[in-house]
Design a protein that fits this description.
4-stranded antiparallel beta sheet, 8 helices, 6-stranded mixed beta sheet, alpha/beta, Rossmann fold, 12 strands, about 290 residues
Length: about 290
């Protein structure tokens, strides 16, 4: 069994690994999950997940409550409560299960939480400055160690970058002075997560039920932010229950998860079919076990 991690970082980020075609130097996929099994408190939740995402691709992961979607997101991020017992998760061919949550952040992974944590007394600006500076500085050190040239991020550079990203996301400057998620509406919490993603510039972003608790106006704002950030340099895994999010963020691939594994994959039409027919017909197709 794999050793449990003792720390959990809420923030993850991007790095320059890989090539523009979505594969590493050896032709391996950007992000690949193979036969992943994971448990919490000795209860197996993931029972053989297989999923491959190329750089620049948007994938949607759908499924009923209890199917293991959020568990998969937490395992990718390195949550210490989950124990991986079998399988692998590879990022440009490297096994991330051997990395701490902080290493995953520094190398380019990001998780937007379904229920972001409230941290009273810590302003958005200070939280973001610490997260971005730590990640950028670690990236700069790795670049120098590899023989390149890079400088740590200065406070002035961070302020400029934050203002630029907030303007892109149509956020008022006063937002940065508020305590992290304290008194935030559902929409504000999700916008704060997208701002983190904008500043950290990940290569792989996992968005865990970003549409949860949002009214239609907030959903449009958050979706516009994701669409503004998505592109050839970043792969995205959207975890959602509903087709409505996919009306705003268009995936190239849709996967259905049940009972801890991916049971069906297809194009965008699969989400429409699921919306129309529900999960019962699919349960009948894949077996009573799910």
């Amino acid at each position: 069994m794999r050793e449990r991690r003792e720390t959990m970082s809420e923030t993850s980020t991007g790095t320059g690994i890989g090539t523009s075609n979505g594969h590493g130097a050896t032709g391996t996929p950007m992000f690949q999950i193979e036969n992943l099994h994971a448990s919490i408190e000795d209860k197996e939740i993931l029972k053989g997940v297989d999923l491959t995402i190329g750089q620049g691709e948007v994938h949607a992961l759908m499924g009923p409550n209890g199917s293991g979607k959020s568990t998969l997101a937490y395992v990718i991020a390195g949550h210490p409560s989950y124990e991986v017992t079998e399988g692998s998760v590879k990022f440009f061919g490297e096994d991330i299960l051997e990395w701490s949550p902080e290493e995953r952040a520094q190398k380019g992974l990001f998780l937007a939480f379904q229920y972001p944590t409230v941290i009273p007394g810590v302003s958005m600006a200070n939280f973001l400055r610490m997260a971005v500076t730590n990640v950028r500085n670690a990236r700069a050190e790795a670049e120098v160690a590899a023989g390149g040239e890079a400088k740590p991020m200065t406070p002035r550079e961070f302020r400029r970058l934050m203002k630029e990203k907030m303007a892109m996301l149509k956020m008022d400057d006063a937002f940065a002075t508020r305590y992290l998620n304290e008194g935030f509406s559902g929409g504000e919490k999700k916008r704060a997560e997208i701002l983190q993603m904008a500043l950290l510039e990940p290569r792989m972003a996992v968005l865990d039920e970003t549409d949860s608790g949002l009214d239609i106006d907030a959903l449009k704002v958050v979706s516009e932010g994701v669409n503004a950030l998505a592109g050839p340099g970043m792969g995205v895994l959207l975890i959602t229950h509903y087709q409505r999010l996919l009306n705003f963020i268009k995936p190239q691939h849709v996967h259905i998860m049940m009972a801890g594994r991916v049971v069906q994959s297809g194009g965008p039409e699969l989400a429409h079919e699921l919306e129309a027919k529900g999960y019962e017909g699919l349960r009948a197709q894949v077996g009573a076990a799910v």
